[in-house]
Automatic annotation (TrEMBL):
<feature type="region of interest" description="Disordered">
    <location>
        <begin position="134"/>
        <end position="210"/>
    </location>
</feature>
<comment type="similarity">
    <text>Belongs to the PspA/Vipp/IM30 family.</text>
</comment>
<feature type="compositionally biased region" description="Basic and acidic residues">
    <location>
        <begin position="163"/>
        <end position="177"/>
    </location>
</feature>
<feature type="compositionally biased region" description="Basic and acidic residues">
    <location>
        <begin position="134"/>
        <end position="148"/>
    </location>
</feature>
<protein>
    <submittedName>
        <fullName>PspA/IM30 family protein</fullName>
    </submittedName>
</protein>
<dbReference type="InterPro" id="IPR007157">
    <property type="entry name" value="PspA_VIPP1"/>
</dbReference>
<dbReference type="Pfam" id="PF04012">
    <property type="entry name" value="PspA_IM30"/>
</dbReference>
């Protein structure tokens, strides 16, 4: 279990470049690795809990056996005081049997206690490693997001100044200049046309006045 946990931890660092080369999403992959590590840790926590329960059970059995040993010793002494050697002998025999049990249980308890201690230490190491990897994952996620944002911005900016865009912009600029030239020409033509019409109209006005003036002079005999 611990080897698997360390293998997953190694994969996070060793395969990150490969992951990027294959165009895999590093953010999603890092999240998956952290979920795998968390699952491994839960399994170890379960194993530690079972080992601690086993240690407590063996301790209780050892203490029960040792309690009977102490009890039979006192009973044997009491039987001797009462002059009952047979009862004392049976108490000592039972004491011996429980001493053997207590010895075996003590050895088992000591091993279980040592195993539980080691498992707790390993679990603490795993939790520390998990916290370190979580911080590293958060940093890598931030770097990945920043890299994707920079890439997107660079692509957008590069498309703004490429030849096709520049040529298109220049074409539109030429069209605007053409429109402006056409508008100015149209205004000049309109102005020229209006001036000519005005001159003829003025001439017509002058011809009418002269005729009227001649008619008036004739009427008044001032010719």
């Amino acid at each position: 279990m611990f080897k698997l946990f360390k293998r997953v931890k190694t994969v996070v660092g060793a395969e990150l470049n490969t992951m990027l080369d294959k165009a895999e999403d590093p953010v999603k992959m890092l999240d998956q690795y952290m979920r795998d590590m968390a699952e491994d840790m839960r399994d170890v926590e379960g194993a530690v809990a079972k080992q601690i329960a086993n240690e407590k059970m063996l301790k209780r059995k050892y203490e029960d056996a040792q309690s009977i040993v102490d009890k039979r010793q006192k009973q044997a002494e009491k039987a001797i005081d009462a002059g009952d050697e047979d009862l004392a002998r049976r108490a000592l025999q039972d004491k011996k049997d429980h001493e053997q049990q207590a010895t075996v249980l003590k050895e088992s308890w000591d091993r279980a206690k040592s195993d539980a201690t080691n498992l707790r230490e390993k679990l603490d190491e795993m939790k520390n490693e998990y916290r370190e990897m979580k911080l590293k994952k958060d940093s890598l996620k931030a770097r990945a997001e920043s890299a994707k944002t920079r890439t997107k911005m660079n692509r957008t900016m590069s498309s703004v100044g490429n030849d096709e865009s520049k040529q298109g912009f220049e074409r539109m600029e030429e069209k605007v200049l053409q429109f402006e030239a056409e508008a100015e020409t149209s205004e000049d033509m309109s102005s020229s046309s209006r001036s000519l019409d005005d001159e003829f109209e003025e001439m017509d006005k002058k011809d009418g006045v002269d005729d009227e003036l001649a008619a008036l002079k004739k009427k008044l005999g001032k010719e």
